[in-house]
Amino acid sequence: MRYLHTMIRVSDLDASIRFFELLGLKEVRRVDNERGRFSLIFLAAPGDEGRAEVELTHNWDPEIYTGGRNFGHLAYRVDDIYATCQRLMDAGIIINRPPRDGHMAFVKTPDGISIELLQDGALPPTEPWVSMPNVGSW
């Protein structure tokens, strides 16, 4: 058995793709299904293509998705948690659980899916992250 991908439904495809690209994922393939009126976009971190992908499912007809927190979360190891969080903040993404410990942070996709960011090991605690409060649930 081998892990293939995690699928999440998204309401704003462009915003979702931008979000995952900010995390460092790249689109590896796309399927547009005219008959079913949906698109599947597969994204992966460099080197994970075909192994550990995120499938964004976008239904062309408007739907409201709730319960993003019920999904749980996706988790990604990052090279520098502080630089990653700063890049996301600079793009207007809210850091729901800042990396106060130099090891873990949580952010959310435009559809409210939690994303856990993990540093390999831990960086020394650094401001402004140490004193930054949690924002909402993560």
UniProtKB/TrEMBL annotation:
Q: Which GO terms describe its cellular component?
A: cytoplasm
The UniProt GO MF terms for this protein read: lactoylglutathione lyase activity
Which InterPro entries did the record assign? Glyas_Bleomycin-R_OHBP_Dase, Glyas_Fos-R_dOase_dom, VOC_core
> What positions does the domain VOC occupy?
2-120
What Pfam families does UniProt report for this protein, alphabetically? Answer: Glyoxalase
Which residues lie in coiled coils?
none
Keyword vocabulary terms for this entry: Lyase
**One biological process GO term for this chain?**
methylglyoxal catabolic process to D-lactate via S-lactoyl-glutathione
- Record protein name field: Aldoketomutase
- Which organism's genome codes for this protein? Sphingomonas yabuuchiae
